[in-house]
Amino acid sequence: MSSQTAVQVAEGFRLSPQQRRLWHLHETYPASAFGTQCTVALTGILDVGRLTQAVARVAARYEILRTSFGFLEGTSVPVQIVNGSAPHLESTIDLRGMDAKRQESEVQLVLEKQWSRLCDLQSFPAMSFALMRLAETEHLFIVTASALCADLAAVVNIVQEVQAAYSGRNIDAEEALQYADLSEWQNQLLENPADQNHTPYWKSAEFPNLLYPRLPFLLRRDAATVGSSYENIDQTVPMETLAAITALAQDLQVSMQSILLAAWQHLLKGLSGMDAFLVGIGLDGRVQDELQTAVGAFAKYLPMNIQR
Question: Parallel, antiparallel, or unpaired for β 127-135 and 93-94?
Answer without folding.
Answer: parallel
